[in-house]
Design goal:
single chain; about 140 residues; 3-stranded antiparallel β-sheet
Amino acid sequence: MTFSVRPIAERDRPALESIYRDCRADAEWLPPKMRKRSNFARDTKGELILVAVASNDELEGFVSVWEPKRFIHHLYVRSLSRRKGIGEALIEALDGRVPRPWQLKCLRANSVATAFYLSRGWNEISSGDSADGPYALLERA
């Protein structure tokens, strides 16, 4: 799959809302009430957003970052586009835009995401409990 990463454009918002809603609805690791609670505009307000775009101009995923804390708040890739390097490319595209170290929280129940980050050089620096369940705070220097 050929794709590129670029900053969000206003025309991207409906497709990103759909990706966000669909990914969260499929997230069995999220508590049921949280799966239904998705609002892309509200949940990414004020964040830097980069999007992955396929060669046919279809959006494949996005990453959003709260820049003051260098905190990756969301990383979502459409289900049919996973395991094709999109998530990694979205994170790598932060280089030069957001200083390191970067941090993110990953729910322990989301074992696929935890394995993804740890296999790419992220380190667990602390852990805790949230309304969504136990999480690991990960950092990449």
